Amino acid sequence: MASSAGTVNRVLRLAGPALLPAIAYGAYKGNATGAIESFFTGPGRTSRIIALVVVLFNWKSLPMAWTVRVWSAMVSHFLFRRFHTHTPDKLFHPVITSTHVSLLEVDYNLHKSNSTYFADLDVSRSHLVSHLFARGCRALAHNATTKLVVDPSSSTSEPARGKFGVMLGAVHCSFRREIAPYQAYETWSRVLGWDRKWMYIVTHFVEKGAVRPRSWDAGSFGATRKTDGEPQEWERKIFATAVSKYVFKIGRLTVHPVVVIGESGLLPERPGGWVAVEDGAAQPAGLVTGGELPEANPSEWDWRRTEEERRKGEEFVRHFASLDGLHSRFDGGEDGALGRFGLG
User: Fold this and answer.
1) If we measure between CA atoms, which residue out of 208, 197, 22 comes closest to residue 101?
2) What digits encode the pLDDT tens for the residues 112-160?
3) Where are the domains of the chain?
């Protein structure tokens, strides 16, 4: 993800200033105004306008639309929002994106097809990681200079080399309610937790406008809850909930998630650090020390509150992570197969 964004960043910096005048001149020479007027007033205008409306309301299902949605998320945060910073108390805050069910996402039950949720997850996760961990991803993308991750095979502590990337390892989605054609909804994605290899992200599909946060972080805007009021039954507003896991890589080397989180300024100081080594393997210190956490100070966000939130997520991701063992249950049709069918 980060390596792709870095390439786009460099291309836009070099080509952007030249492309804008070229586009403007081309529109002028090509009489763009006349073409637009002819489109809306010339013969056959009704069919063209109807076709335009259909395209506008269903653009997210057009060819290459997924690529545009995902890349625009990465480019907007890595290129145009490069200077944002967040404090550790924002680590578990969600990012919210809005979209709707397009016509081509509707199945024969006349609601959003289950398979289309995963495209929305790609977009939502891209916004979260590109925004929250922009500084960490940028530092690791230049690891040869920053030397954050050392090549374990090097006897002289040389930095690990290779392209930095963020890879998706697995997704689980639990469906609760259907979403009707053209109905608007929001995706709320946040960090759920992490272990020595994976970062886990939870995403909720929520009715648009039904839930408002108590506040917005710096640089964001939108409506908020007017009063705290009584605890709401938010589950009634949820269409589906998904858990995804990401792994960070430099070449073929796995990067511990706390490196990315820490370099993004999102980890408070912790006695002994956030990573411990047990049996030669690095893992979160919380998994090594175990036991009860010291009581956290409610007036400040310290390492105990961060670890407490991580452990809350761990209760769910432990079961999710165990599903990797299902790969071993594939037997290659040892006892036979039902058949081979077309139009798959």
Assistant:
1) 208
2) 999 999 999 999 999 999 999 999 999 999 999 999 999 988 888 899 9
3) 2-218+233-264
The listed CATH number (3.10.129.10, 3.40.50.300, 3.40.1190.20, 1.10.287.3510) that belongs to domain 2-218+233-264? 3.10.129.10
List, for residues 41-54, the tens digit of each pLDDT value: 778 778 888 888 88
Which residues contact residue 70 at a Cβ distance below 8 angstroms, ignoring those fewer than 6 apart? 122, 123, 126
CA nearest neighbour of 137 among 167, 158, 164: 164
Q: How far apart are CA 297 and CA 310, in angstroms?
A: 17
Structure tokens at 114: 């289950």
Long-range CB contacts for residues 229-236, cutoff 8 Å, separation at least 24: 234/206, 235/176
Mean of per-residue pLDDT scores for the chain? 84
Q: DSSP string of 151-216? A: -TT-TT-PBP-S-EEEEEEEEEEEE-S---TT-EEEEEEEEEEE-SS-EEEEEEEEETTT---S--
Give the separation between CA 202 and CA 188, rounded to whole angstroms: 8
29: number of Cβ within 10 Å: 8
Task: Spell out a b/e string for 143-172, using b for 16 or more CB atoms within 10 Å of the CB, else e.
Answer: beeeebbebeeeeeeebbeeebbbeeeebe
* 304 sits in which H/E element: helix 303-322
State pTM to two decimals: 0.82
Q: Which pLDDT tens digit goes with each residue over 218-232?
A: 666 677 776 665 557
139 touches 289 (CB < 8 A)? no
